[in-house]
Design a protein that fits this description.
There is one protein chain. By secondary structure, this protein is mainly alpha-helical. The protein has one domain: Rhopdopsin 7-helix transmembrane proteins, CATH 1.20.1070. Helices cover 74% and strands 3% of the residues. The protein is built from eleven helices and three strands. It has helices at 19-49, 56-73, 76-82, 92-125, 130-133, 136-162, 179-183, 191-222, 228-256, 266-287, 290-308; strands at 9-12, 89-91, 171-172. A three-stranded mixed β-sheet has the order 2-1-3. Helix 1 packs across helix 11 (290-308) and helix 4 (92-125) runs antiparallel to helix 9 (228-256). The radius of gyration is 21 Å and the shape is globular. The mean pLDDT is 86.
């Protein structure tokens, strides 16, 4: 239930208040965001147009790139624009929308990573039953469940945020709205809300990380029975996935599994999972994947041929 608040808007302090550093932030993160859009949209386009990338792994990779694009878009454009402005205000409603979209697409990305790990487990440990277990219908149902689960999680975040009364200071010491910094502005005891936050976001991050790492340990252990070539290919795929998991979940666990205290490093740590991971995912999944690179080359070759025939 929405409480009566004296605060109708918040002020985002951003990464820095120094005018010179703000210009540097603008240039660097504009380039990062353009890289995120270019890389992820290129993967989305390649998977959608290539006939060779029809396996479940690329079906899930499509949705990972989609969630990464939307996840970074929930925070990056605002941060980039705010770096040029003196008055970085955000309305209460816009703040709540940002909380919802940030957690929705962040949680969706987590669930998709779990599905990708499950896909690799079935492909490596049960290759003869792979196409039966990971049929297109099963994959579609799993993605729908991931979307529904993400909606439930982000709705819980919004309900927690709306339960907080704001009647005093309205400066958020962050570059986007999130429940953690909002707790510091609430004019009420936030112990229970923080407990629910840790049991919600913190539990999702921690449990998902443990599940993913355990699944990859099992996968890597099972590779001992494979041929040298098959072992090398599977190992390359798993290592790239593990890199993504560690880079994303490490900072998330640090932020969401502790009491409602903020540190000066929190904003820079948040950059790792809001900007860093969506930027690195396309590089990791294309540079380490021969099939994706070949599909991109084929699309480019067909485009050049079609352009030459005009």
């Amino acid at each position: 239930m929405l409480l009566n608040n004296n605060v109708t808007e918040f002020i985002l302090l951003g990464l820095t208040q120094d005018p010179v550093k703000k210009k540097i932030v603008f240039v660097i993160f504009l380039l990062f965001y353009l890289g995120i859009l270019l890389g992820n949209l290129l993967i989305i386009f390649t998977i959608k147009t290539s006939r060779t990338l029809g396996s479940p792994m690329y079906f899930f990779l499509f949705y990972l790139s989609l969630s990464d694009t939307c996840f970074s878009t929930s925070t990056a454009p605002r941060m980039i624009v705010d770096a040029l402005l003196k008055n970085n205000t955000i309305s209460f409603s816009e703040c709540m929308i940002q909380v919802f979209s940030f957690h929705f697409f962040g949680c969706l990305g987590i669930f998709i990573l779990i599905l990708m790990a499950a896909d690799r487990y079935v492909a490596i440990c049960k290759p003869l039953h792979y196409m039966t277990i990971m049929s297109r219908r099963v994959c579609s149902v799993l993605v729908i469940v991931a979307w529904v689960g993400s909606c439930v999680h982000s709705s819980a975040q919004i309900l927690l945020a709306l339960s907080l009364p704001f009647c005093g200071p309205n400066e958020i010491d962050h570059y986007f709205c999130d429940l953690q910094p909002l707790l510091n502005l609430a004019c009420a005891d936030t112990y229970m809300v923080n407990l629910l936050l840790v049991s919600n976001s913190g539990a999702i991050c921690t449990v998902s990380f443990v599940m993913l790492m355990f699944s990859y340990v099992v996968i890597l252990y099972s590779l001992r029975n494979h041929s040298a070539e098959g072992r090398k290919k599977a190992l390359s795929t798993c290592i790239s996935h593990i890199i993504v998991v560690v880079l994303f979940f490490g900072p998330c666990i640090f932020i969401y599994t502790r009491p409602a205290t903020t540190f000066s490093m929190d904003k820079m740590i948040a950059v790792f999972y809001t900007i860093g991971t969506p930027l690195l995912n396309p590089l990791i999944y294309t540079l380490r994947n021969a099939e994706v690179k070949n599909a991109m080359r084929n699309i480019w070759s067909k485009k050049q041929i079609s352009d030459g025939q005009r």
